[in-house]
Amino acid sequence: MKSAKIVQFPRRHRADSITIDPVWRASNVSHGPKQAHRSARWKMTLGRAVGSVWLLIGLLWPLLNWMGALDVLFQWASAFYYSNNPDSHATLRAVLHTAGYFLLSAFVYLYRPKVF
């Protein structure tokens, strides 16, 4: 049987053996984390808020989906029932409820926050 070949690595760290110009080192030293711009902080805060709302809606989504579908169904049944009444704006209400349900569904299914 052949024995495995063991490669011995040097004990010194490679960075110790490389000489670095002190002027170059002084010019490239980081001075801690940079201060975030005000708009970047607002963007991060808004992203966290929207992500939290998305999480809450996502956790309650089975119930909200069921209630939203029943609401849209009821609104369209009401629109058909009041279709001959010019004083009732049931069709507009049904269209707005359908659009809201569609937008909420798109928000839950298509949006993925960067926070999580």
In short:
With 116 residues, the protein is mostly helical. The chain has a domain at 53-116.
Bulk shape: elongated
According to DSSP, the number of beta strands is 0
Outline the biggest β-sheet.
none
Percent helix range = 55-70%
Beta-strand residue fraction: under 5%
Could you tell me the radius of gyration in angstroms?
31 Å
Order of helix and strand elements from N to C terminus: HHHHH
Backbone structural class? mainly alpha
Number of helices: 5
Q: Cα distance, first to last residue?
A: 53 Å
Ranges where pLDDT stays below 50 over 5 or more residues in a row are none
- The overall pLDDT, averaged over residues, is 83
Q: What characteristics describe this protein?
A:
64% helix; mainly alpha; 5 helices
SSE blueprint:
Blueprint: H1 14-17, H2 22-27, H3 38-59, H4 61-81, H5 90-110
Description of the molecule:
It contains five helices and no strands. By secondary structure, the protein is an all-alpha fold. The protein has a domain of 64 residues. Helix 4 runs antiparallel to helix 5. It starts with 13 loop residues before the first helix and ends in a 6-residue tail after the last helix. The relative contact order is 0.10. The model has no long low-confidence stretch (mean pLDDT 83).
